[in-house]
Amino acid sequence: MKTALITGSSSGIGKAIYDILSKNGYKVFGISRKDGDIICDLKDLKALHIKVRELLKNSDINLLINCAGVGVFKPHEELSLQKIEELVDVNLKAPIVLTNLCLRSLKKTKGQIINISSIEATKHSKFSALYSATKSGLRDFSLSLFEELRKSGVRVTSINPDITKTAFFDNLNFKPSDDKQSYIDPKDLAKEVLNIINSPFVTTDITLRAQRFAIKKG
């Protein structure tokens, strides 16, 4: 049985991927602040390091999916130091640290890394400077890492989803509209992840778009 490690597994995209992998023969370890197989706040990188190292003592990893993410969309001068640190830690540092921890195991299994970036990594939007910086960093990390690992057999993919209907927007001042063509369903994104895993080719970078653009304020 293959083993997967996934962050953000308690809700949204992470939970959808967790569920589909579990139904397709994977033993899945989810990392989450709550309701996870590994309970850990990704801002606490030292605790994350300890807990994942403990897991790797007893299990090799075939698949690492960095899915957890937080967002903020407001004028940059209004951001607190705490919020800046949170986005950089969760969206960028944690995936880099987890990859560092898991790479020897992934090389052994000739496994795969999938990083869930964002459409914002591919364009420039008002009030998105910090979020775009973290997600662009994650995307570029993925693309460079593929070149580094190509000969090892480890596959690396960056997925850049458009607006996806999840709890990500609960604390933001906008959310997906009710038009089903204006957002991505997490279950559909999870199906695409499974397609990428099962493909004989390496999808290094893929952007998933909704057919229409529409949001709701508030």
Please explain how this structure is put together.
With 218 residues, this protein is an alpha/beta fold. The chain has a single domain (2-217), classed as Rossmann fold. It contains five helices and nine strands. It has helices at 12-22, 45-58, 81-109, 129-149, 186-198; strands at 2-7, 26-32, 38-39, 63-66, 112-116, 155-161, 174-176, 205-208, 215-217. Strand 4, helix 3 (81-109) and strand 5 form a beta-alpha-beta unit. Helix 1 (12-22) crosses helix 5 (186-198), helix 2 runs parallel beside helix 3 (81-109) and helix 3 (81-109) packs parallel to helix 4. The protein is globular, with a radius of gyration of 17 Å.
Secondary-structure element series: EHEEHEHEHEEHEE
The end-to-end distance, rounded to whole angstroms, is: 45 Å
> From the structure provided, what is the oligomeric state, counting identical versus distinct chains?
single chain
Mean pLDDT: 94
Major beta sheet, specifics?
Answer: 7 strands, parallel
How is the secondary structure organized here?
Elements: E1 2-7, H1 12-22, E2 26-32, E3 38-39, H2 45-58, E4 63-66, H3 81-109, E5 112-116, H4 129-149, E6 155-161, E7 174-176, H5 186-198, E8 205-208, E9 215-217
Parallel strand pairs: 1-2, 1-4, 2-3, 4-5, 5-6, 6-8
Antiparallel strand pairs: 7-9
Helix pairs in contact: 1-5, 2-3, 3-4
What's this, in brief?
The protein is α/β, with parallel strands linked by helices and 218 residues long. The chain has helices at residues 12-22, 45-58, 81-109, 129-149, 186-198, and strands spanning 2-7, 26-32, 38-39, 63-66, 112-116, 155-161, 174-176, 205-208, 215-217.
